[in-house]
Amino acid sequence: MTRTLISAAALVFAGVAAFAQADATADLKQFLSSTHSLQAQFNQTVTGKGKAQNSSGTVAIAIPGKFHWEYQKPYQQLIVGDGQQVWLYDPDLKQATVKDMGNALESSPAAILAGDSGWERNYTLRTLADKDNMTWLEATPKRADSSFEVVRLGFANGQIAQMDLLDKFGQTTQIRFSQITRNPKLDASLFHFTPPKDADVVHQ
């Protein structure tokens, strides 16, 4: 997998059924109201034209607006949101890219999860049929310039378990979360990034 494709998947990154189905909108509201921080592992698969591309790593989120999204395989890459800016750092290329949080809010899975609770203001929400033992919510961005066409969130026992994101290039990014810890005490240093002295810094 190329680094460009990994970056595109992450920075193109804080979610009423029929009678028998659970209410995924309620799951989203409950999750957001009861979650102040989150730590998990993730497995990501990007599909589109050509071979599926897999990656994995760890994520830490502090709501609102702070996240630490680290790819560990197949290439190392770090994405850090400090509440004001988002940094993308590639240690192999020794390159750091930085952009304002406002310009990245809907371009990263982590940024979507770490965002404020204004989902109903920013998205059109629709509950989908239950699937794979999860309740599903589909969120369509109201902003025409959103990086994603559709975001689907899967909840298991009120916990975020999966995100599916369809972008404007026809690619689908599926992210499965595991070993989730809700509301852990996170070190503030996770959400700060200072580029190494030998890194090229690109401002967007």
TrEMBL record:
Subcellular location: Periplasm
Signal peptide: 1-22
One GO cellular component term: periplasmic space
First-listed, main subcellular location of the protein, grouped into a coarse class: periplasm
Any one of the GO BP annotations: lipoprotein transport
Keyword tags: Chaperone, Lipoprotein, Periplasm, Protein transport, Signal, Transport
InterPro entries: LolA/LolB/LppX (IPR029046), OM_lipoprot_carrier_LolA-like (IPR004564), OM_lipoprot_carrier_LolA_Pbac (IPR018323)
Taxonomy, superkingdom: Bacteria
Keyword Signal in annotation: yes
Keyword Transcription carried by entry: no
Subunit note: Monomer.
Family stated for the protein in its record: Belongs to the LolA family.
Entry function: Participates in the translocation of lipoproteins from the inner membrane to the outer membrane. Only forms a complex with a lipoprotein if the residue after the N-terminal Cys is not an aspartate (The Asp acts as a targeting signal to indicate that the lipoprotein should stay in the inner membrane).
Name used for this protein in its record: Outer-membrane lipoprotein carrier protein
Source organism of the structure: Amantichitinum ursilacus
Higher taxonomy: Bacteria, Pseudomonadati, Pseudomonadota, Betaproteobacteria, Neisseriales
Recorded name of the encoding gene: lolA
